[in-house]
């Protein structure tokens, strides 16, 4: 399925959760001198114009990053994420939103590497243009990130974050996520794997975290953020989650102190958040 374009949803509440967690993990990996890789299996365009037709059609960013943009009281971890978004904007006005590849690139050091995959031909061209000066540190591959991941694991430095966030347009996406994480753990058991997923009424969405919990991982963390109550007709995304396999030991505490604050700020009538961790 190649109909999904993230530009319609860039900067929404789900992006805020996903990218906040991404930055936290990347910052943690960068605390050690040893190099690390970040692999993004569904990279998208890399950066999005919030003044363009796509973003303006739904305007979802206004209830996402737009609510954080001018706040002066952000918790330190959230302020770090928003500061990176500011780097993507040349002035005080919020006009551009960075995707996960751009944010990941800002967290890299000279010795670290970023590996990006994208299938959609239009987004691929934009991604390639956004990272044409990436040099050896950043590579863009046209194709299926799930398939490409197999060739990259384990990475040479044996330290890596794998981010996967397919569109979940079809049931196969849910199956492919579980298979990719299962295979990844067999190839690279100590890697950190971050899976974004939508909170929907459909069965596959509700079952995905439970299937990921059942994998042979040493530890996991599951964080969900809901900004509204589920629609009566069962359609629409009322929230999203980040399931992290082998999370940094600092991540749970950071989320415990910031996620309730973020849920209240992003609320669209009813909000909730939850943080689960694997049994010790």
How would you describe this structure to a colleague?
The chain has helices at residues 13-29, 53-58, 65-68, 76-87, 100-106, 121-130, 145-152, 171-187, 203-213, 251-266; strands at 37-40, 47-49, 96-98, 113-118, 138-142, 160-164, 192-199, 220-226, 239-245, 272-277. The protein is an alpha/beta fold and 280 residues long. It has a single domain (6-277), classed as Vaccinia Virus protein VP39 (Rossmann fold, 3-Layer(aba) Sandwich). The strands form 2 sheets. An 8-stranded mixed β-sheet has the order 5-4-1-6-7-9-8-10, with helices on both faces. Helix 6 (121-130) links the parallel strand 4 and strand 5. Helix 8 (171-187) runs parallel beside helix 9 (203-213). The mean pLDDT is 94.
Helix-strand blueprint:
Elements lengths: L12 H17 L7 E4 L6 E3 L3 H6 L6 H4 L7 H12 L8 E3 L1 H7 L6 E6 L2 H10 L7 E5 L2 H8 L7 E5 L6 H17 L4 E8 L3 H11 L6 E7 L12 E7 L5 H16 L5 E6 L3
Helix pairs in contact: 1-4, 7-8, 8-9
Quick description:
By secondary structure, this protein is of the alpha/beta class. It has ten helices and ten strands. It has a single domain, classed as 3-Layer(aba) Sandwich (Rossmann fold), CATH 3.40.50.150.
